[in-house]
Amino acid sequence: MQDDSQLVEEEQRFRSLFDNNPDSVLFQNEQSTILDANPASLELLNRRKEEILGRPLSDFLPPDKAVLFQQKLEEAFTGHKVQFEVEVHFLGTPAPKVLDIIKVPLWVDGHVAGVHMVGRDITAITASRSLVLEQAKKLNTIFESITDAFFLLDKEWKFTAVNSEVERLLNISRQELLGRSIREVFVSEITGQFYRQYRQAMLTGEAVHFEAFFEPRQMWLEVKAFPSEEGLSVYFSDVTDKVKAHEELYRQNKDLQQFAYVVSHNFRAPLTNMLGLVELLTSMDKQQPQYDELLQHLRRSTEQLDIVMRDMNTILTIRDQRDVAQPEQVPLAEVVEQVLENLQEMLQQCGAEVKLAIPAELRVRGNRAYLYSIFFNLVSNAIKYRSAERPLLVEISATKDMSASEAVIIVRDNGIGFDLKRAGTDVFKLYKRFHSQPAGRGLGLYLVKNHVDAMRGRIEVQSEVNAGTRFTLYLS
Amino acid sequence: MHIVLIDDDSTSIFLMRLLLQREEFADTITAFQSPEEALSFLQNVEAEKIPQVILLDLNMPVMSGWDLLDALTLKGNTQLNHCRIYILTSSLAQADRIRAEENPLVTRLIHKPLDKLELAVIKAETKGDFESYN
């Protein structure tokens, strides 16, 4: 009696669990026949209990899913608990469901007597999960499709999203950024403009827009940062080329201004002489002894004006050709030898010695005419400003490191030199001169500098009064 | 009257000399094409040879007119106190005019070419000096 009532109680407890279970529960035998079904499962299959009891589950399944359910059932009958997720459209039901299914074997006297199938409807969860995934994907597509680099910072300055343009521009992978604070990733920038601007945006809640130089990548970046509840959205792009072009335009404009100033001055010098001379000539009798001398001076001033005119033409032509001239690999030794050959007579006349140390195979990237002009001007200057106290010695040497890929060319003389401190930044400027004798125009070194610039090289000068001058050229 | 000309350009010197002679401006004309030589002359000049007027060019190699003025100021040449220095330049630059006005050694900046009228003004200015001086 006691045993019986205990049994009845257990049976009732089980029944209650079975009937009230929000998950669907079916009991099947080895032939897949449904022996029992709880109300949740009836609802799932959209059937009444008598419609399904005694029939195989496959009667309610689409054919492709029947195979899967059969497999899993057989697996459970081997004595293992089986779990799987499946999307299934039961026959006679309005919509497919996503189920998380567990098949649990029921052991009786050492063998599996049947299998309980517990199915949890996860359709809604799956749908919202895939919605989230889809939205994340959409967002990601948007992030990736904008050409700007883009990242999101949360209120703790941590990166929460980064697109691949950020990775490309900053040369850093998103794994190195996500979840880390911008202050920790870019420590060196903490005092810089970027952080200051972001901070301002966060504090004031107002968007910021600025251009700044990003030191670690040697880049000018244009940045827009928008604060929000979440933190800060930052868009940026590389504007280095634009900034460089601006700087170049500004520099060229300044150059031209300076050029116009110098030119006007140098036109006016001979012109004022002409004005004065003409004024005197008109009031002078032809018979007077100074008349012829005046005419000579007038001729000389006129010629000077013509020379300035020609200089302008030379300079402007070079400027015009700057961007047109195609660089080539010029054999340096050949060019220098050509220059020396053309200056041979002058070199011999002053008893000069020239020492050359240029590897025969050394080539520099540039323009042959420019290189000729550079060495012609430098050697001519060495001759012109030689010392009367010692025979002229000109040394021209060149080296090119395999690693440096830059040729270093030195032109050195033992002439009268000049006071570099006094000349200051004027050495390569137009119509600047550093010797009163012999007369020069102040054009040579200006042209040299122009040619070197056009070939994207550099030139430096060292000089000591009465000891000599040394020019160092760096060409690629 | 003693006048000193400092200009690296020989035509300029020739022109000024001719004009000065025609206008009978000075008894003595001393011309320097090298500003360094002019400087050393002015620094060592004997009292009776101190010029009353200097015409100074600006744009010269090695030592510009400004450099020369700086060198004179540095030495504190008191013997030049009663000498009028005129800058005579072909430069029309405003910067040069301002700089001339600011330099206490400089009486005035004159644009080249020098002419009769300008010489007459200079003469009047120096004459005033003599009268107040004597």
TrEMBL record, chain A:
Keywords: Kinase, Phosphoprotein, Transferase
Reactions this protein catalyses: ATP + protein L-histidine = ADP + protein N-phospho-L-histidine
Transmembrane segments: none
Source organism superkingdom: Bacteria
Annotated GO MF terms: phosphorelay sensor kinase activity
Annotated EC: 2.7.13.3
Entry-linked NCBIfam families: sensory_box
Protein name: histidine kinase
TrEMBL record, chain B:
Sorted UniProt keywords: Phosphoprotein
Pfam families the record matches: Response_reg
Domain of life: Bacteria
Keyword Nucleotide-binding on entry: no
GO BP, sorted A to Z: phosphorelay signal transduction system
Entry-linked PANTHER family: RESPONSE REGULATOR RCP1, RESPONSE REGULATOR RCP1-RELATED
Name by which UniProt lists this protein: Response regulator
Residues modified to 4-aspartylphosphate: D57
Source organism per UniProt: Hymenobacter fodinae
Domain Response regulatory positions: 2-127
Keyword flag Transmembrane: no
Matching PROSITE patterns: RESPONSE_REGULATORY
